[in-house]
Amino acid sequence: MPTRTHKQTIAKLYWLNIAANLGGFIVILVLSFFTPLTFFKFHKAVVKTGDWLPVLLIIVFIEILVSFLGITLQFIIQRPVSTSLRYRDRRAGISTELFEKARRRLLNLPIILGAINLSIWITISLMGSLVQFFIRNETLITCAYLLFRGVMIGLIASTMSFFLIERHTRQHLNPVLCPEGSLVTIPGAIKISMMRRINILYMAGTTIPMKILLVTLLFAFWEVKAGVVSAADFSKEILFFTIVLYVIFIAIALRLNLLVGTSIAEPIKEMMRLVKKVRDGNFNQKIQVTTNDELGVLGDGLNEMTEGLLERDQMRQSLNLAMEIQQNLLPLQDPEVEGLDIAGKSIYCDETGGDYFDYLGMEENKNEKISMVITEF
Question: I want to staple 241 with a disulfide (CB 3.0 to 4.6 A). Which of 34, 123, 179, 219 is the partner?
Fold first, then answer.
């Protein structure tokens, strides 16, 4: 079985995804309470009279259904990752095909789960709208707005799950299944660039609330035109709705900004620490590459650079050692022979060279004869 750490790591993926769906559902539920539409006013009146149990049961049923579908699909999607971790903990052999599939699935997990969340909410909202239209005889405009609310829940949930899952896998799973980095070379992995993260963040902080406000205004104007509500009540309700919408999405945007900022700042700080150590002459350092975006490519490049510098440093040390040995092979001093002025010196353009000279036979001939050896390459 996997270690407890890996069990908790995989289990947290489920909790994060459930939290994202619950968060999106709660956001739209709160906004519905302030939505200036007759359909929601009726349900608010029902809750105020004390008959809130049916509404609560519907809310609980929807969340349980979404959670069940999400967990089931997530289990299927994450299965290669869980299996690879199990094999890794058992120190058992794992096929290359399964290992590559697990790494590819792990990198694609934030986008896949986000798409699943959006699809689930669209499907459930479409079914709920059809039930309201055909069984409860709600108007087409009301059913259309209910479908729109479901799509917005899906967008909020998918966006939140994307950033939460991406951060969790980057911190706890990518280093385990991709310890050597080079995530950009994994075939079939979707590259989540920094610009793509910023675009998703922009959508969460501006596009989604703008769509909610715009569509709500369109439906509310239709009711005003039809004479369902007065202009004064409409203005006050729209003001409260806009304030609540603003506060909620400011909080969401701040949280997502923190996640995105951390995902960018942490690798940059790690790279700066590496550069400082390399500048001090420490080449035995590496960056833990956990993404396949621009920062991941830069991290791989820095790791390759430090490896090259380490090899060059080792080669330089070897050359210095070779120079020292070669210099010790040369004669320490020139011989003194009466009537002769003998001198020799070898100067290399690099640490070592091929030239060599020596004086031989001095002791045997008692300075009567001098043997010299000179080689040149």
Answer: 34
